């Protein structure tokens, strides 16, 4: 039996990492197995590519170079981690995936969704998530915006507000075109309530029990 691939998406500072930790804790508590990974990263080679992509010193990186590096890291993760787990019938939950590139490189960097999708279709041999959870919070309302505590170690966190607005718009367009694969979850002030929303969604979709 083939496994399921669930991806999580969202702009910077929306609480995505917190929700993934909460979901992982819930699945462990209820005895449900899942492989959690992230991208870019999730294996030795992809983590090295991640370091190049996010290095704030690489300000001269072109949008197409950026998109190809993401696709390369993603291809390695799929071949070495995700695909084998799916073939074993496992549930795989990935922090970011192709929709990130559609929003960031396709939208905010101006490459266009079609270009990014074509690159990734080749890199991933057509693999698509079974479900994508989009933490739907515009950048002006995000935790990142409220705290202004920007990391000096991440090129994307240090981009201006207009960039992040374009990223959000890219996600919204992707959701509209996804035929229901991307499901928007608006986070609550209470993080536990947001976790409950996500767990209920995954139950409704038959992903978890």
Structure in words:
52% of the residues lie in helices and 12% in strands. It has 8 helices and 5 strands. Strands 2-3-1-4-5 form a 5-stranded parallel beta sheet, with helices on both faces. The two termini are 17 Å apart. Mean pLDDT is 94; it is low at 145-150.
Layout of helices and strands:
Layout: E1 4-10, H1 16-29, E2 35-38, H2 44-54, H3 63-87, E3 91-95, H4 98-108, H5 113-124, E4 131-135, H6 143-147, H7 161-177, E5 182-185, H8 191-204
Parallel strand pairs: 1-3, 1-4, 2-3, 4-5
What is the count of DSSP helices, taking H or I runs of 4+ residues? Answer: 8
Uncertain segments are: 145-150
- Shape descriptor reads globular
Summarize model confidence as the mean pLDDT: 94
Keywords:
209 residues, globular, alpha/beta, 8 helices
């Amino acid at each position: 039996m083939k496994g399921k691939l669930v991806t999580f998406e969202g702009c910077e500072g929306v609480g995505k990492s917190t929700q993934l930790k909460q979901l992982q804790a819930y699945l462990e508590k209820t005895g449900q197995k899942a492989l959690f990974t992230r991208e870019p990263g999730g294996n030795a080679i992809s983590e090295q590519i991640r370091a190049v992509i996010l290095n704030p010193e690489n300000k001269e990186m072109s949008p197409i170079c950026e998109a190809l590096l993401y696709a390369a890291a993603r291809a390695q993760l799929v071949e070495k981690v995700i695909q084998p787990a799916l073939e074993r019938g496992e549930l795989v939950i990935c922090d970011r995936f192709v929709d990130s590139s559609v929003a960031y490189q396709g939208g905010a960097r101006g490459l266009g969704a079609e270009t990014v999708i074509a690159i990734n279709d080749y890199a991933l041999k057509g693999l698509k998530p079974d479900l994508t959870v989009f933490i739907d919070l515009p950048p002006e309302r995000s935790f990142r915006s409220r705290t202004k505590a920007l990391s000096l170690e991440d090129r994307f966190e240090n981009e201006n507000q207009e960039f992040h607005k374009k990223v959000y718009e890219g996600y919204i367009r992707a959701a509209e075109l996804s035929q229901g694969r991307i499901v928007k979850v608006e986070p609550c002030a209470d993080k536990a309530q947001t976790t409950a929303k996500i767990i209920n969604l995954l139950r409704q979709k038959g992903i978890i029990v």
